[in-house]
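Please decode residue identities from the backbone states below.
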């Protein structure tokens, strides 16, 4: 009896195994059918989307891709890459998609197999389309939209960081400082320099150096019309980027960040005059005149013949009340460049500023002998001021004959010193310039 029971148990076990094996085969068969069906459905929807895109029916393509999307987890890598490329094309809609659609298209493009020739070709289509639109928007002074397009260009072609630079320039020009700051910070993080090789040669007729593409330059050299050919890298934009980061921080009222940004840059290039002036300009905007003056002097020491530096130092010296220093700097500018109109104008203005104090003292005097003597002395000083200012104003008119303000001032001075001929000539000029 025990043996029979054991036998029955064995038979039951065997029977159970057979049932399980039969059931597994059914499941495997069902799964195989399901996978085959999914694969067919995937191919069908992807094929439908591809056909719709070729017919420029992008809404239909997106609808087909929405169906395929539910099966994406079952796709192999090749099908996923195909799906992403088709989705990118459908969203981009040959350049008619809105900004959000374009963002989506770029996202799917970047998920595709970037080594595939079809993907590379479509990437070029997006690049050309966006570049044309970005340039048109910038030329049309629609800077915010241009910045968006250049940013999309960078996302579509991340190897070309120049597009990110253009996005930053567009944003800052459009005064969208938050976006511009993001772009500039990313450029700084990437170590972007923006240097390009440029080719140049000297025009024999004009003696001027001209920059051109290599092929054109080489042709001109062969013709003999140009000489002294060469090539060089353009100036690095890293200083400009640092400067704009700092100035945007100032604009956003983030003083500490601004100072930190420029000091970090100067650690790497302590003798970079451009960066020194950027820091000086920063302190000027923050109202720290002493720091501004010290930095400009530092820049002048590195480049003592830079007339713009000297002129700026003259301006700031005047603003802080150091008139003697201001005159000294303006004199240096004029010595280096007699045609520097602003320095000539400011010198004349500073000289004539002393007139008001003389007039006030003259008007306060009485009629005593001592007062009359003092009056004559002050009158003489006043005449001397006029004579000191005249050469500078005359130099201004040599460079700018139509400068009405300088003409009026000279007319009044000639009248005051009794130079009748010059007064009449200047009066005629003022009338002509005024249209009277």
């Amino acid at each position: 009896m025990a043996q029979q029971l054991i036998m029955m148990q064995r038979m039951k076990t065997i029977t159970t195994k057979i049932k399980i094996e039969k059931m597994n085969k059914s499941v495997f068969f069902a799964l195989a059918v399901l996978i085959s069906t999914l694969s067919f459905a995937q191919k069908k929807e992807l094929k439908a989307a591809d056909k719709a895109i070729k017919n420029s029916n992008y809404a239909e393509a997106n609808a087909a891709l929405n169906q395929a999307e539910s099966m994406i987890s079952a796709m192999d890598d090749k099908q996923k890459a195909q799906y992403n490329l088709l989705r990118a094309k459908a969203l981009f809609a040959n350049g008619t998609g809105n900004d959000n659609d374009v963002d989506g298209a770029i996202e799917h493009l970047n998920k595709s197999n970037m080594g595939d020739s079809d993907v590379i070709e479509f990437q070029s289509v997006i690049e050309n389309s966006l570049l044309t639109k970005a340039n048109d928007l910038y030329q049309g002074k629609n800077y915010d939209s241009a910045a968006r397009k250049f940013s999309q260009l960078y996302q579509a072609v991340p190897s070309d960081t120049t597009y990110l630079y253009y996005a930053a320039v567009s944003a800052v020009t459009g005064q969208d400082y938050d976006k511009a700051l993001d772009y500039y910070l990313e450029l700084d993080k990437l170590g972007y320099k923006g240097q390009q090789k440029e080719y140049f040669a000297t025009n024999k007729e004009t003696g001027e150096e001209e920059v051109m593409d290599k092929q054109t330059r080489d042709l001109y050299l062969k013709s003999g019309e140009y000489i002294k050919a060469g090539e060089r890298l353009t100036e690095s934009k890293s200083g400009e980027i640092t400067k704009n980061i700092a100035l945007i921080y100032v604009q956003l009222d983030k003083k500490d960040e601004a100072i930190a940004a420029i000091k970090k840059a100067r650690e790497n290039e302590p003798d970079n005059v451009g960066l020194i002036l950027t820091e000086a300009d920063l302190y000027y905007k923050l109202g720290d005149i002493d720091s501004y003056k010290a930095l400009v002097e530092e820049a002048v020491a590195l480049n003592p013949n830079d007339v713009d530096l000297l002129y700026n130092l003259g301006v700031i010296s005047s603003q802080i009340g150091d008139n003697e220093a201001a005159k000294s700097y303006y004199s240096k500018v004029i010595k280096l460049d007699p045609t520097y109109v602003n320095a000539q104008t400011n010198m004349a203005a500073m000289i004539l500023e002393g007139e008001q104090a003389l007039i006030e003292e003259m008007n306060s005097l009485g009629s005593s002998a001592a007062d009359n003597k003092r009056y004559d002395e002050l009158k003489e000083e006043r005449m001397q001021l006029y004579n000191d200012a005249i050469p500078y104003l005359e130099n201004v008119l040599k460079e700018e004959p139509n400068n009405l303000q300088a003409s009026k001032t000279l007319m009044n001075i000639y009248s005051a010193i009794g130079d009748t001929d010059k007064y009449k000539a200047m009066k005629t000029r003022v009338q002509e310039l005024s249209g009277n």
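Observation: The longest strand covers residues 226-233.
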